[in-house]
Specification:
Helix content of chain B: 25-40%
CATH class of the largest domain in chain B: Alpha Beta
Number of domains of chain A: 3
CATH architecture of the largest domain in chain A: 2-Layer Sandwich
Order of helices and strands of chain B: EEHEEEHHHH
Shape of chain B: globular
Strand content of chain A: 15-25%
CATH superfamily of the largest domain in chain B: Beta-grasp domain
Largest sheet of chain B: 5 strands, mixed
Radius of gyration of chain A: 27 Å
Distance between the termini of chain B: 44 Å
Structural class of chain A: alpha+beta
Number of strands of chain A: 30
Radius of gyration of chain B: 15 Å
Oligomer: heterodimer
Distance between the termini of chain A: 39 Å
CATH topology of the largest domain in chain A: Aldehyde Oxidoreductase, domain 4
Strand order of the largest sheet of chain B: 2-1-5-3-4
Chain lengths: ~725, ~150
């Protein structure tokens, strides 16, 4: 995050939601006079907290829950300050429409970039604290004693002097009418009792019984189903289609063109709609983009490795001069492919449109953008639209800045006013119309002095910008700052962990017609491969142990160094790893956290067996270490799948891989043992859902190089015949 | 018309014979705990039990289900008591997004019928469901916990 503008909640305009929201917005304390009673049948103390007469505490969670555990972590933050009984905590998701109506009382709904907790911790804790103050005040007024003489713990308010006590449930109604406090002191972290504990998730029971509702599961009375097919080439259009061929099919209600590039079939059941759509003759005008292929993209990116003009992300000293005077130059070129998110729940949404109301039920990482998208698609103003968020069957960035499925669902529903319609993409549609991990190539050029000290490093990235497509307003004079994740010269987000006297990191932007999108980790994933693999290449060239080579450059980066040292120590770096087992290291900073990994692998022919990965993360404050461990282990599954198997290729302008038979993923058999070190050093809030994904691939690649002497620089590794054993 | 017993209840369903069991369960009967992931029997999100065997319901046409006993995730718990796999999942806090877990749990429950104490190799061979969040480490721990009691 580059700049944080303070925006008064009262002057905030809804229009920003359409721009995506979230990247650079700060908020005043998002609680205040309540504007609506909770719909859950209990008194609302404030926007964040509802306490029911039976002492159930409902904490409102604005961010989306897609597996990353933010629901539980945010509830812990509020509960810590609320001093409630954790065993009575439940949750609910407020709607984006309520947020607009209540002047964005819950702040931002955008859930991406591992920002859920790190961006909202302050106001969520204050929401809990304000509710506590009001509850205590209510009891004190009832007893006619000063509130300062009362204490609160586990949902019980006590006035020791008069030996009286009451419970939150009994005073909640009165508390909700009290003027919210303006001065809120948060607890000192050393006094935390709920934050920092590895508590169980709040959403497990419903997820093991099939009761959890995802977007795909929403069922409304009288609902119809829709299947859709858009032109497989981005930019292409519908030329013609022969609806008469299927209009008589059983269950088919309507065949409709959606905008200029898609056809949808509405039916009594999804299977009938999908089967009819498969049988529908459609001719596409695929346009110029149909000429594009993986080869043509690669050639275009390759040119970018050597052109003069490039956006600068990090510049120190004089790289050109230093490389010119270097005793030795080392160069390597890497490349990284397009990858689909493959959220296990394909894109879908249920929409109901009438002349004065449009409602959408969906899995989304960005409720407010879904709301703005619905409004824009149907033409009704935002107050006449509403979005109901469900659980997400995976997000990983796919459901963040791109609400294309919401737009389509609304446009389909508009064709049949008053009737709710569930639009569901096939897996094939989902694979074909992704917002892919962007494609890049990278040339790294290093200079050594005569003693093999690293004196200069030029990193040239050539390839696609996400922001240029999804949020052009966030570009800085054309430059996409996110491209340089992990290479920033400093700051709290993703700074490089090495001091190199002459450094230049620059980006030649080349944007093919394939849509790029945020993706678990995204830019840091390939950037960490480029830098951390090259570091090992340089260490080898210098004849120095890779850990020692790094340490020498990291003296000024103690937090980076601490996580690296932690994994090296726990893994036993420098001691034998076992018969034919080799180790590899990687470290980086991303999403505000410092992370490192040490992988242990053996290579037998083309089979790579990953025996063990030791990972460390310093997220500043660790809200729930047990969930952090799960995020770390999970991030390696996503990261190693990407490294070994993840590739979407382009032929005749379209993505070739249409389903999981050609886009394979890790299974349990390939899961290495992951040992996680959670080492919060305090004083800052880093993310946990994504950062460690970035060290998975380079740690394994460095171990593979140690095992085989071979350095792989293009991905996925299946290109080289390598498989995960 | 197809007749099938789902979680002990007989249903008569008006669906074309080639309609996959998955869509009959979800859209005709309204049991949405069974999930759609790929439609080609790769991911296992749609796993249910057919006469006690784990099947990927996206690839079983309803014509083959006539007269069969189907158990879905909604019917795994008996008389309000969670199945031991579900219980282990709760104890080990396995699910993340949870979308794959219905299928994962049904696959594991079927495995345990055949092999009450599966080895890691058994698990590797038999449990091939895809989890994109990457819960595999917890899945393995929970399976062993469920079977060691």
């Amino acid at each position: 995050m580059n700049c944080v503008a303070k925006i008064n909640r009262r002057s905030f305009v809804v229009g920003t939601a359409a721009a995506g929201g979230g990247l650079a917005l700060g908020f005043d304390l998002p609680f205040g006079p309540k504007l609506a009673q909770a719909e859950v049948g209990g008194p609302e103390v404030n926007a964040w907290v509802v306490v029911q007469p039976d002492e159930t505490v409902i904490i409102r969670i604005a961010r989306s829950e897609m597996g990353q555990g933010t629901l539980t972590g945010l509830a812990q933050l509020a509960a810590e300050e609320l001093e409630c009984d954790w065993s009575r905590v439940k949750y609910e998701f407020p709607t984006p429409g309520q947020n607009v109506a209540r002047k964005r009382v819950w702040g931002d709904f955008f859930t991406a970039g591992s920002r859920g907790i790190r961006e909202s911790n302050d106001f969520v804790r204050k929401g809990g604290a304000a509710a506590r103050i009001m509850l205590v005040q209510a009891a004190a007024e009832q007893w006619k004693v000063p509130a300062a003489e009362c204490t609160a713990a586990d949902g019980v308010i006590t006035h020791k002097a008069s030996s009286r006590s009451t419970t939150y449930g009994k005073v909640a109604d009165t508390a909700g009418k009290i003027e919210p406090p303006s001065d809120i002191q948060l607890k000192d972290p050393k006094d935390w009792k709920i934050i920092g504990k590895g508590l169980k998730r709040l959403d497990t029971a419903e997820k093991v019984t099939g009761k959890a509702i995802y977007g795909i599961d929403v069922r409304l009375p009288g609902m119809l189903y829709a299947a859709i097919k858009a032109c497989p080439v981005n930019g292409g259009k519908v030329k013609s289609f022969d609806a008469a061929k299927i209009t008589g099919n059983k269950g088919v209600k309507k065949v409709v063109q959606i905008e200029d590039n898609a056809i949808a079939v509405i039916g009594d059941s999804w299977w009938q709609a999908k089967t009819a759509l498969d049988a529908l003759p459609i001719t596409w005008d695929e346009g110029e983009n149909a000429k594009v292929s993986s080869e043509s993209i690669a050639a275009w990116l390759k040119e970018g490795l050597d052109v003069e003009q490039a956006f600068v992300g990090n510049k120190g000293g004089d790289v050109k001069a230093a490389l010119g005077g270097a005793a030795q130059k080392i160069e390597a070129v890497y490349n990284y492919p397009y990858q689909n998110h493959a959220t296990l729940e394909p894109q879908n949404a249920v929409a109901r449109y009438t002349a004065d109301k449009c409602e959408v039920w969906c899995s989304t990482q960005n409720g407010e953008q879904a709301l703005a998208t619905a409004s824009e698609a149907c033409g009704l103003p935002i107050p006449k639209c509403e979005v109901y968020k469900t659980f997400l069957g995976g997000g990983f960035g796919r459901r963040s800045t791109s609400q294309d499925y919401v737009r389509q669902a609304v446009l389909v529903a508009k064709e049949i006013p008053g009737t709710p319609v569930k639009l569901l993409w096939t897996r094939e549609e989902d694979m074909t119309h992704g917002w892919y991990h962007p494609i890049t190539q990278c040339k790294l050029t290093a200079g050594f002095d005569k003693d093999k000290n690293l004196t200069a490093l030029h990193v040239r990235i050539s390839g696609q910008s996400i922001l240029a497509k999804v949020r052009p307003a966030a570009l800085q004079e054309g430059r996409d700052p996110a491209t340089f994740s992990g290479f920033y010269p400093g700051g709290a987000e993703a700074a490089i962990g090495y001091s190199i006297p002459n450094i230049l990191v620059d980006h030649s932007m080349r944007n093919p017609h394939i849509y790029p999108g945020f993706w678990r980790g995204v830019n840091i994933n390939h950037n960490a491969i480029y830098l951390e693999c090259f570091m090992d290449e340089l260490a080898k060239e210098a004849g120095v142990d890779p850990l020692e080579f790094r340490r020498k450059l990291m003296a000024q980066h103690p937090k980076h160094l601490a996580v690296l040292n932690a994994v090296a120590t726990k893994a036993g770096w420098g001691t034998p790893a076992g018969q034919d087992v080799h180790r590899g290291l990687a470290q980086c900073m991303a999403f505000g956290s410092y992370v490192a990994a040490c992988a242990e692998v053996s290579v037998n022919g083309n089979n790579v067996k990953i025996h063990r990965i030791v990972a460390a993360t310093d997220p500043g404050y660790a809200v729930n270490p047990a969930q952090i461990e799960r995020q770390v282990a999970g991030s390696f599954v996503y990261g190693l799948t990407a490294l070994f198997m993840g590739e979407c290729t382009v032929k005749a302008g379209r993505i070739e891989q249409e389903n999981f038979d050609t886009y394979d993923m890790m299974r349990i058999a390939q899961m290495p043992k992951v040992e996680t070190i959670v080492m919060p050093s305090g004083g800052f809030w880093g993310g946990v859902g994504e950062p460690t994904i970035a060290v998975a691939a380079p740690a394994v690649l460095n171990a593979v190089a140690a095992a085989t002497g071979k350095r792989y620089r293009s991905f996925p590794l299946k290109q080289h015949g390598l498989t995960m054993a | 018309m197809a007749r099938l017993t789902v979680n002990g209840q007989l249903h008569t369903v008006d669906a074309d014979p080639d309609t996959p069991l998955l869509w009959v369960l979800r859209d005709h009967i309204g049991l949405t705990g069974t999930k759609y992931g790929c439609g080609i029997a790769q991911c296992g999100a749609c796993t249910v039990h057919m006469d006690g065997m784990a099947v990927r319901s996206c690839s079983v046409p309803i014509s083959l289900v006539d007269g069969k006993q189907i158990t879905t995730i909604e019917g795994l718990a008996q008389n309000g008591t969670l199945h031991k796999v579900q219980k282990a999942w709760v104890d080990h806090d396995v699910p993340q997004c949870g979308y794959c877990q219905s299928g994962m749990i049904m696959a594991v429950a079927a495995l345990l019928k055949d092999k009450p104490k599966p080895s890691d190799e058994d698990i590797n061979r038999e449990i091939t469901n895809i989890c994109r969040c990457g819960t595999y480490q917890q899945v393995r721990e929970a399976i062993h916990a469920a079977t060691s009691a």
